[in-house]
Amino acid sequence: MPGIIGKKIGMTSLFTPDGKNIPVTLIQAGPCVVTQVKTVENDGYAAVQLGFGDKKLKRVTKAEAGHYKKTNTAPKKKVAEFDTEGVSLNAGDVVDANLFIEGEFVDVVGTSKGKGFQGVVKRHGFAGVGGQTHGQHNRARHPGSIGACSWPSRVFKGMRMAGRTGGNRVTIQNLTIMRVIADKNLLVVSGSVPGAKNSYVLIEK
User: Which letter, b or e, does each residue of 33-47 get, where b requires 16 or more Cβ atoms within 10 Å of its Cβ?
Assistant: First the structure.
């Protein structure tokens, strides 16, 4: 199985045997239920759909309720597909943290924290126009000139400006699994992963 759905619990740190303090993230990895198996014959590609976290039946549409009824499982809060070429799974199977081993490298996919509309200093790390010299007034965090005058008489696409920041799909690659606490379905992963506490993430091998 190439991956699993998890929930970010929070961050802490671990000491290595040689005394280094490493920041780590706790992720609740599963248990996930196989809610659908897609095949090349029926769907055009091979994949498995996993569901994580139960949801009340009254909060889903009839179509969703019928979809989960086929596998005799409760409606799920988070659903994701994983490529399953060479993997044999059936609808209703359970995937949990035992999928991983300590020392393994994984990629973690999440949605970064949304920060709303932000200026160029916060969004792109601009230094601002400068200090209080040369008669500057109320311009410390402004973007300055954007470089478009009589030619080309327009602003080039991709110009770094103020705008909506965060809330993007972000992948952090090659994080090390420091601990696997199988009885509680917890993974302790080195470094930070995108998203707020209790946000859903995908852990991919």
Answer: bbbbbbeeeeeeeeb
* pTM, full prediction: 0.83
Which of 50, 43, 13 minimizes the C-alpha distance to 203?
50
Query: Using CA of residue 109, residue 111, residue 115, residue 119, what is the dihedral sign?
Result: positive
Mean pLDDT by 10 residues, the chain (205 residues): 92 92 93 90 90 91 91 92 82 89 95 96 88 74 85 90 95 95 93 95 94
Sign of the dihedral through C-alpha 73, 74, 75, 77: negative
CB atoms within 10 A of CB 60: 16
Handedness of CA 105, 115, 117, 134 (dihedral sign): negative
Neighbours of 49 (CB within 10 A): 20
**DSSP, res 152:** B
Calculate the dihedral angle through the C-alpha atoms of 158, 164, 166, 169, rounding to the nearest 10 degrees: -60
Phi, psi of 100 (to 5 degrees): -110, 160
